[in-house]
Amino acid sequence: MIGFLDNGAGAxxxxxxxxxxxxxxxxxxxxxxxxxxxxxxxxxxxxQQFSMAQALGAxxxxxxxxxxxxxxxxxKSLAYLIPGILAAVASRRPLVVSTHTIALQHxxxxxxxxxxxxLFEQTPELSAFADFRVAVLMGRGHYLCTTRLARAIESxxxxxxxxxxxxxxxxxxxxxxxxxxxxxxxxPAPVADIWEWVNADSHVCTSKRCSSxxxxxxxxxxEAAKAQLRIVNHSLLFALIGAGASPQxxxxxxxxxxxxxxxxxxxxxxxxxxxxxxxxxSSLGIDRALRQLYNPKTKRGLLKRLGNSYDCRDxxxxxxxxxxxxxxxRHRHLSKRDCVRLYAPQWGPLDVLAPFAxxxxxxxxxxxxxxxxxxxxxxxxxxxxxxxxxxxLESALFLAEERHVHWMELSGKNKQIVHVHTAPIDVAPxxxxxxxxxxxxxxxxxxxLCGGGDMEHFKTRVGGDGQETLRESSPFVPGPxxxxxxxxxx
Length: 490
What we know:
By secondary structure, the protein is of the alpha/beta class. It has two domains: about 15-135 and about 225-275 and about 425-490, P-loop containing nucleotide triphosphate hydrolases (Rossmann fold, 3-Layer(aba) Sandwich), CATH 3.40.50.300; about 280-425. Helices cover about 50% and strands about 10% of the residues. The protein has helices spanning about 15-30, 35-40, 45-60, 75-90, 100-120, 145-155, 155-160, 160-175, 190-200, 215-225, 235-240, 270-275, 285-295, 300-305, 310-335, 355-370, 375-395, 430-435, 455-460, and strands spanning about 65-70, 95-100, 135, 230-235, 260-265, 280, 340, 405-410, 415-425, 440-445, 470, 485-490. The strands form two sheets. The chain has an eight-stranded mixed beta sheet with strand order 3-4-2-5-10-1-11-12, sandwiched between helices. The protein has a four-stranded antiparallel beta sheet with strand order 6-9-8-7, sandwiched between helices. Helix 15 packs antiparallel against helix 16.
C-alpha cells in the first residue's frame, strides 16, 4: 500500500514534435555563451553545463536514456531541470526527478527550481513556461488520513490504552492546524503504533471515501497529478516500482504513464534498488504488527473490536510462536556472529507458516461479515499483510528466489532483533527492465559515476549497456577529464 498515483489517470495529450523540438532549442539558448542564464540572471557561462544540457535535451526529444557524470561545479541541477521542465510543459508529459538525500531535495526546492521560475518569468521567450507546477511526493505512510483518524478516535477505547489515547488526541489537534498532514511536521514524532492507525497507507484511504478537501494524502495526490515536475527520492521510486506501481509493460513511462525520469545522485541507485527488489522481515516488525491485531498485554486491538475471544486467542498464540521461531534461529545461527549468510533451505522451523494463513482466512470471514465498509477495508489490509508475511517467510525459509543472496542479522541495543533479508545478486536485469526498457528517457547523473575509472563498470551495474554516456569534468579541478567531454552512443 505505498502507491501514490493510479496509473490509469487520463491519457496524455501528445504535442507536435515541433513544440518539443522548439523547447529543446530554448533550453540550449539558456546555456549558450551570452544565453538567457547570463543575460537574465548574470550567471557565468559553463561549457560543461552547456554540453550536459545539450545532451540531456537531445535524449528527452528522442526518448532515449543518458548516463552523465558531471563533476563538482558543472551545475548539473540546472542542466537537467531547465531542459526537463521545458520538455515537460511542451509535451504535457511529467518529469520525475529522484534524489537520494533530503539535502538535495531541499536544494532543488529552495534554490534551483525557484531560479528556473525566475529565469522563465524574466525572459520573454520563456514566459509561457513560467507557471509550471511542482509537487514533492512522499510515500502514503507519511500522510495523515482524516478518515482513518476519525475511525481511530471513534474506536480508541478498544484500540488504545489511556496513555496512547492522549497521543491520538495530540495528533487530532495537530490535524486542525497542519497544512500538509506530513509525519515529518509533527514534533515530537508520533508514537509509531498510533501513526499506523491514522496514516494513509490503507485501502480505507481512497478517493471515493476521502475528499481532497479533507484528506491530506488525497490533496497531495490531486496536486501531484497536475504537476509537470514531480520530486521523489530513490527509496520511494524503487519501492513503488518494486510493488508494481509503474505503468503496464505496453505503456511508455517509468513511474507514471508517459513520464521521463532523472535520477540524481545516481551512483547510489544500484544499492537502493537492490534493497527494494529483495525482501526484508524482522522479528520486531512482525511482533508489532500482530499486536495491533490484538495485544495480550493491553487487551486491545482490531480483533478485540471486530473479532471474538477465539480470534484474540489465535493472535496470542501466533505472537508466541513467532517469538519462539526467531529465538530459535537466533540461537542456531547468530549465537557467535551478528550476520550470517544462509546457504541451505529449511534453516528454521516450518510450523510458523500455517498459522499465518489460518489467521488470514479467519480475517477473510470477518471481512464478509463486516457491517461497515471501512472496517472491511482495514481487515483486507491485514489479510494482505498476513499473507505477505507468510509468503516472504516461506520464500526465505526455502531460499526460493533464484539468483538471490539470503542472509540473517541482528540489530537493536541488545542485539535481540532478528532480520531476514533476500536481495538479487545482480540488480542490473531489474534496472534494465524498469528504467531502460520503458520507451522513455531515464537520465542517470552524479559527480561520481565512474569512480575514478571509466563508466563501463557503472553501466554494467545498472543494466545500462548500449545507453549514451557523457562525462564532464569539474571546472574547478584540473585533471585527466579536461580533454573534453566523452559523448558516445553504443
